[in-house]
Amino acid sequence: MRALLIYAHPNHRSLNYAFFEAAQKGMQQNAAIHEIDMLDLYAEKFDPVLVFHENKRRRDMHKDPELEVYRKKIKQADLLVFVYPIFWGRPPAMLLGFIDQVFAANFAYRHDSLLPEGLLAGKRAVCVSTMKGPRFYSRFFLHNAHKVLMKKALFQFVGIRKVKLFEFGGMEKKNGKQQKYLDQTAAYFRKLAK
């Protein structure tokens, strides 16, 4: 299995980076994962801003040469892993801008009829996210907005059916169980099978 590990946080000394490292460590100890490619959107200086004009049209995004390297990484991967914080009940703008541009029509999906056809079928996705507030806040007060966005509006739309979301809440508390969740993340990726 080939994995693509995508990191969307500006700080390499953050708890999110510790989750990135835990996921990477677990994958390295998993015999089913024979290749791990990593993508740090901030280190890459990925520009999340969508730009359209007469020479750059939305319908041609799947052919944008500046995004080809990212499309190739996604196409080659069997497993897509995203590590990011949850801001305002959703992933950071950096990750959303990446998704807007790279998961384009005629690459990630085709919409020729009433219902879309996902072109990334057969892949698996895992999101490892952290939030300051408690987990129940996202679930009950925001009606699982993050889960609906990532699992249904994104992954299922593009054909990815095997989706796992980790939403670790209370991460800024001194007793926020950070180490327990880091260990859980590493263990999950260590045992993940095709």
UniProtKB/TrEMBL annotation:
Key words of the record: Oxidoreductase
InterPro entries, A to Z: Flavodoxin_fold, Flavoprotein-like_sf, NAD(P)H_dehydrogenase_qn
Alphabetized Pfam families for the sequence: Flavodoxin_2
Domain called Flavodoxin-like fold: residue spans: 1-189
A GO term from the CC aspect: cytosol
Gene Ontology terms for molecular function: NAD(P)H dehydrogenase (quinone) activity
Record-stated family: Belongs to the NAD(P)H dehydrogenase (quinone) family.
The name this protein goes by in its record: NAD(P)H dehydrogenase (Quinone)
Species this protein is from: Terribacillus aidingensis
